[in-house]
Write a structure and sequence with these properties.
The protein is of the alpha/beta class. It contains 5 helices and 5 strands; from the N terminus they run E-H-E-H-E-H-E-H-H-E.
């Protein structure tokens, strides 16, 4: 049924539930997995002030270096979990994009036939707002999305 599963993670405890669920599904189906993590663009508000060009350039470098290091740690952990379960996997880090946009691009590039991602459980008015990345992915893709809460 599903042969290539994309599992989105930001390395959080909640996202780990999505990783675990996606891996169990991959084991059961004999599917391969691609993990994706996304580093959002450097906050533009950091560019204000008289010395902005000098200070922000250093901050941008630090931000990008930290983001790459964190992404590598997250993806290495995910790939190790997949390997321990006998699941073929790869990791993809997308830089300077909105998470939903990057997830959809990687899903297409990888030929994914299922996207697995975690979502915060929202109630009341929060459920009606399309602010979460998960809700945005669900609303913009034709690929099935499994949302783990």
């Amino acid at each position: 049924m599903y042969k290539t599963i994309l599992i989105a993670t930001d390395g959080s405890e909640l996202a780990q539930k999505g990783v675990a669920h996606g891996l169990e599904l991959a084991v059961g189906l004999g599917a391969a997995v691609a993990f994706v993590t996304v580093s959002e663009p450097f906050p533009t508000l950091a560019w204000g002030g008289a010395m902005a060009g000098y200070v922000a350039a250093d901050e941008l470098s630090n931000y990008e270096e930290s983001a790459r290091k964190y992404a590598s740690e997250v993806l290495d952990k995910c790939k190790a979990e997949a390997e321990a379960k006998g699941v073929a996997s790869k990791g993809v880090h997308v830089e300077n994009k909105a998470p939903a946009e990057a997830i959809l691009e990687v899903a297409g590039a990888e030929g994914s036939d299922l996207i697995v991602m975690a979502s915060h459980g929202r109630r009341g008015l929060g459920r009606l707002m399309l602010g979460s990345q998960t809700a945005e992915v669900v609303s913009l893709t034709r690929i099935p999305v499994l949302v783990v809460r």
